[in-house]
Design a protein that fits this description.
The chain folds into 4 domains: about 140 residues, Rossmann fold (3-Layer(aba) Sandwich); about 160 residues, Rossmann fold, CATH 3.40.50; about 80 residues, Helicase, Ruva Protein, domain 3; about 50 residues, Orthogonal Bundle (Arc Repressor Mutant, subunit A), CATH 1.10.10. The protein is about 50% helix and about 10% strand. The strands form 4 sheets. Strands 2-1-3-4-5 form a 5-stranded parallel β-sheet, sandwiched between helices. Strands 7-10-13-6-14 form a 5-stranded parallel β-sheet. About 35% of the residues are buried.
C-alpha cells in the first residue's frame, strides 16, 4: 500500500529518448504509480524543482543540451536531499557509476532495465525515503513540545509528559499503513488511543473494532473474514467479515494476546500478504485496512514460552505504543478525577463540589490497579451513593493513610493530614518567604505538579500560584 506522500507527490522521469520515456510512464502507471511527470530536457526538471515536491527522480545520465545528468543529480542532492535519485543510463562504465553513487544516487541501473528490477528499485527507493522522512519527523516531534493535531486527542485527558510524548509519536506514525501495537495494563485507554490514531491517519473509511478474546479458531475466521453462501450448513447467504467492513479504514484488534496459535497464523497472512480468504471462498481477497492491535499481556514473554508466534510479533509490532499505568501519571490523576466528577454530577443532576486536600492526597497515593477505568467507576459509584462525602469515605477505606509510594510524587513524611493540628518548625525559624516557598513546593509535590490542584490545597487562586512561581524565577 502506498503512503500518502506517494499519492500526492509525483515521480519525475528525465530522459531524452521519448519512446523510452513513454515506456517508463506506462510501466509505472500499470504498477499503480499514477502521479508521474516526464521530461525530455534536463533544464525543464530543474526549473520545476523549486515549485513541486517529488517523491522520486529517475534520471538519464547523458543527454544532449546544456545540462548534464550529473549536474542534475548534484542539484537534487543539494536542494532536495529527501528525494531519492535512481540513475537509469545506457553507459555501463565503472567511472560514472562510482561518481554517481559517491554524489548520493540511490542506485545506478544500466539500460535496458528489466521491468521487475525497475519496479523493485522504485519500491526500495520510496520505502527508504519514507523511513528517512519518518525518522526526521519523529526526531523533530520528540524534540518539540507542540502537537500538530491536538483535536485528535480531545477524548483523552493527559498533561503528563510521557503521555504528551506518546501523542507526538502517534502523529508521526499515523499517516503510514504499517501495523501498530498498543500495550498497557487493563483500563489505561488502549481503545481510545487506537481511535485517536485513526483520526490522525486521515482515513475517511470506518474504524472497526473487534475484541478477539474468547473467539475460537472458526469464530475468529468467520468474524474477521466472513463466509460465502454454502460454506457450512447454516450459511444461507454471504456474510461480510470485519476486514471487508473496515475497507480502507482501520481494523482494531483488541486483546490480541489471547489468540490461539492457529488464529495467529491466519492473522499473520492478513498482515503479511494483505490477503484473506472468506470461509468457503475459492480466491483470496485483498485487504486495504490498517491493522492496530492491543493487549495487556507481555507478548515478548509469551513468544519466549511458545504461546505467541515470533513472526507475528515482529509484523504486528512495527510501531509500538506503550501506555503507562495511571499511578505513574501523577498530575493526570486529579485532572481525570475532576473530569469524571463533573460528568457524574451532570448525569445524576446533583450539585458538584470540589476535591479538597485530604481527598486529593488519597487519590494521588492510591495505586489504582484498574487504572482510569477504576477511577471513573469509583467516582460515579460514590457520587450515586452520597456525593463527595461518599467518595471521601470510599477513598479513606482504600487508602488508610496517604503515605508515599515508590512510584508516587515525592512527598515529605508528615502526620495524617486529617488529624494533624500542630506543625513542627525547624530551629532557627525560616523567613516568611522561605516558608511560603516550601508550602508552594510541598503543594506541587502532593498534586503531582498540577498547579490548579496545588493552588486549591493552599487556598489561593491559580493566578496567585502562577505569580508566586514566576517570582521565584
Amino acid at each position: 500500500m502506498k503512503t500518502n506522500i506517494e499519492s500526492v507527490w509525483p515521480i519525475f522521469l528525465v530522459d531524452d529518448e521519448k519512446p523510452l520515456l513513454d515506456s517508463l510512464c506506462m510501466t509505472l502507471h500499470a504498477a499503480g504509480y499514477g502521479n508521474v511527470e516526464a521530461f525530455t530536457d534536463g533544464q525543464a526538471v530543474l526549473d520545476r524543482l523549486p515549485d513541486v515536491q517529488c517523491a522520486l527522480l529517475l534520471l538519464d545520465l547523458f543527454m544532449p543540451g546544456r545540462v548534464h545528468g550529473e549536474a542534475i543529480l548534484e542539484r537534487f542532492r543539494s536542494e532536495a536531499p529527501h528525494v531519492p535519485v535512481v540513475v537509469v543510463t545506457g553507459v555501463d562504465e565503472t567511472g560514472p557509476a562510482v561518481r554517481c553513487m559517491k554524489a548520493g544516487a540511490f542506485d545506478y541501473l544500466v539500460k535496458p532495465v528489466e521491468q521487475a528490477l525497475l519496479l523493485a528499485t522504485v519500491r526500495r527507493a520510496l520505502d527508504h525515503a519514507g523511513l528517512l522522512r519518518q525518522n526526521m519527523h519523529l526526531r523533530d516531534k520528540l524534540l518539540s513540545e507542540r502537537l500538530d493535531q491536538p483535536e485528535a486527542f480531545s477524548g483523552i485527558i493527559a498533561e503528563n509528559r510521557r503521555m504528551q510524548a506518546i501523542f507526538r509519536y502517534m502523529e508521526v506514525i499515523a499517516p503510514t499503513a504499517e501495523p501498530v501495537l498498543i500495550t498497557g495494563e487493563t483500563g489505561t485507554g488502549k481503545d481510545l488511543m487506537a481511535m485517536a490514531l485513526h483520526r490522525l491517519s486521515g482515513r475517511g473509511e470506518p474504524f472497526v473494532a473487534v475484541n478477539v478474546a474468547g473467539l475460537d479458531d472458526n469464530m475468529f475466521a468467520d468474524t474477521l473474514f466472513g463466509h460465502v453462501k454454502g460454506a457450512f450448513t447454516d450459511a444461507r447467504q454471504d456474510r461480510q467479515g470485519m476486514v471487508e467492513q473496515a475497507a480502507d479504514g482501520t481494523l482494531f484488534l483488541d486483546e490480541i494476546g489471547d489468540l490461539s496459535l492457529v488464529s495467529q497464523v491466519k492473522l499473520l497472512k492478513l498482515i503479511q500478504d494483505q490477503e484473506y480468504l472468506p470461509l468457503g471462498a475459492q480466491r483470496p481477497r485483498r485487504s486495504r485496512a490498517r491493522i492496530v492491535a492491543a493487549t495487556n499481556q507481555d507478548l515478548e514473554a509469551a513468544e519466549s514460552k511458545g504461546l505467541f508466534r515470533r513472526d507475528l510479533f515482529y509484523r504486528v509490532n512495527t510501531y509500538h505504543v506503550h501506555l503507562p499505568p495511571l499511578r505513574e501519571r501523577g498530575q493526570d490523576i486529579l485532572l481525570l478525577a475532576e473530569h469524571y466528577l463533573r460528568q457524574a454530577c451532570e448525569s445524576l443532576k446533583i450539585p458538584c463540589g470540589q476535591i479538597d486536600s485530604p481527598l486529593a492526597e488519597r487519590l494521588l497515593f492510591h495505586p489504582f490497579p484498574g487504572n482510569v477505568r477504576e477511577l471513573r467507576s469509583l467516582i460515579f459509584n460514590s457520587m450515586a451513593q452520597g456525593g463527595l462525602q461518599a467518595l471521601e469515605k470510599n477513598m479513606a477505606t482504600l487508602v488508610k493513610s496517604p503515605v508515599p509510594r515508590c512510584d508516587a510524587p515525592a512527598m515529605k513524611t508528615v502526620q495524617d493530614t486529617t488529624s494533624r493540628t500542630d506543625i513542627l518548625f525547624p530551629d532557627p525559624l525560616p523567613t516568611m518567604d522561605q516558608t511560603l516557598q516550601d508550602l508552594v513546593q510541598e503543594a506541587l509535590r502532593r498534586s503531582g505538579g498540577n498547579q490548579a490542584a496545588a493552588a486549591r490545597m493552599l487556598g489561593i487562586s491559580r493566578q496567585a500560584m502562577h505569580q508566586r512561581l514566576h517570582q521565584r524565577r
